[in-house]
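Usage

Read records sequentially. Each one opens with the input sequence:
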Amino acid sequence: MSSLYVDETGNPAAPSIIFIHGIGVSGWMWKPQLDSLSDFHCLNVDLSGHGKSHQVKWVSMADTAHHIATIIQTRATNGRAHVVGLSLGGHMALELLEHHSNVLDHAVISGVADGPMSNQMWLKPQTMLMSFLLKQKWLMKIQAKSQHLSPVLQSSLLESLDALSTQAYRDIWKEAINFRISPVLQQVNTPTLIVAGSKEPDLMKRSVDKISKLMPNAQGRFASGLGHSWNLEAPDLFSAMIRAWITGAPLPSTLQTTQTVIATS
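and closes with the structure output:
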């Protein structure tokens, strides 16, 4: 049994969705989606070093994917789940697709980057500095207010940053800056939706196009005018997109195709 904390909500008899959050936050970031998709069986994970799993040592993305696969096998309906991941959670979903696709039904992945990232000589000192600054109460409060979250979610963000393992933050970034999309995904038939906000960096937008072309059963879309954490900026759209993708319904018409966005970037 995995030692990661899991918040289990919704209808336990329905198909399962497992939600995987980004770096520096925890499962609270999915609250709008959990509310909208409460007719599903929802498994909301706190990753190693984060939230209520903050005392669990982060080892690697592959190790964490193994733990999540165990959660799916032991707690999801019929041992399978749809996976939804954003940012670090999106990279974790890609790890699951590469190594544990047998437990996945559909995947929705937002805000991932096929590295290596540019300016690598500066990334290590920046990561060290950020891991220190993220623990400063004044900066934590500024960050919470800048994201235009509700007072409840602002409080959740502050709690997440306070609980965050500094070592986990640094170790995750060491992996993330060199993350590369595995060619193994060419053989993975899991229906996969790769998305990003249209305001995200070009590297992430190019990654949407690359992955959607690499995988045999994938599509790419962009959320117009939105940024990295667009599940909170436009929660109704994000939730509607998840529901459409995993049920086989048409995707929301407001989502742009990769051809439209890449051509104008």
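Summary fields computed downstream for this record:
- The longest strand covers residues 104-110.
- The mean pLDDT is 88.
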